[in-house]
Specification:
5 strands; two-stranded parallel ribbon; mainly alpha
């Protein structure tokens, strides 16, 4: 099951959810304008890119207007720069988000125009205000975006349901008992991470830092898990986020499998860094 929450800055989860839904509708309309393949991973990746790019931006400083003024080619360059930075800081996030980042290498003019039109629509609908800084804690924007982009057939196959943010927070607050740093949270139907967001809000409300916790999440939907990986950045869940794409019912020990996959990936990254250093290519972004 996937989860959804919601307008940033106001501290009102209902307004946040309405804002997220508005952006999702505008993004979907812009992406499908003029026709073309569905490819929901592309507009989802565009919104994710804008979210990561705006994490340290100030909405009043004209960030949205600056991005809107970029050409499609300039936007692609910005997007690659954004994900290069994430790769340097938290490479595992890029590993899990990869299913919605394939478009970064395709700059066909018509396709690039479509991508930029989608980004502009998200910005015009107020995405920066929803995902900047602490405002991002109040929303799961990627959940509604993914839901809106799914074709009816795809949505039926994935059986996606989104838990409203206020409901998720209420349920989580009741379920969580005493909290302590290092505690483990596990959701084997993590979707885009809505229950993680709700738990993080409860943790902050009790004076603790979500980044001191460990988060395990699994889902059969790789795009939902990709969104959850990006949401872990937006919600500042910290480095101890372990995600798994697969059916938890088919792998009772999926969390251990996910741990191994993450560890093996980091070993490969470390080996590659050493090889690049030996070849005097240490400045290569990896």
């Amino acid at each position: 099951m996937q989860h959804r929450a919601g307008k940033a800055g106001a501290g009102d989860p209902i307004n946040a959810e309405c804002h997220a839904l508005k952006i999702a509708v505008k993004v979907t309309e812009a992406w499908h304008k003029g026709g073309g393949p569905d490819w929901p991973e592309v507009p989802l990746g565009v919104v994710a890119t804008l979210a990561v790019a705006s994490l340290n931006a100030e909405p009043t400083a004209g960030f949205a207007e600056w991005v809107q003024a970029r050409s499609p080619a300039e936007f692609f360059a910005l997007a690659r720069l954004v994900w290069r930075g994430v790769l340097l800081r938290q490479p595992d996030v890029v590993r899990m988000a990869a299913p919605m980042l394939g478009w970064l290498g395709d700059e066909d003019e018509k396709f690039a125009d479509r991508v930029k039109r989608t980004a502009d629509a998200a910005l015009a609908a107020g995405q920066v205000e929803l995902t900047t800084g602490d405002r991002g804690f109040d929303a799961d924007l990627l959940g509604p975006v993914l839901g809106a982009l799914r074709s009816p057939a795809a949505a039926q196959v994935n059986a996606q349901m989104y838990t409203p943010g206020d409901v998720a927070c209420a349920l989580t607050s009741v379920m969580l008992g005493d909290l302590r740093p290092g505690q483990v949270f596990c959701d084997d139907t993590v979707g885009t991470g809505g229950l993680f967001r709700a738990a993080a809000q409860v943790i902050r409300g009790r004076g603790l830092n979500p980044a001191t916790m460990t988060w395990y999440g699994a889902d059969i939907d790789e795009l939902a898990v990709a969104a959850a990986a990006v949401n872990s950045l937006i919600w500042q869940l910290g480095p101890n986020v372990v995600l798994y794409v697969g059916d938890p019912l088919a792998d009772a020990d999926w969390s251990a499998t996910a741990d191994r996959q993450k560890a093996q990936f980091h070993e490969q990254v470390d080996v590659l860094r050493r090889v690049l250093a030996a070849l005097e290519l240490g400045n290569t972004p990896i």
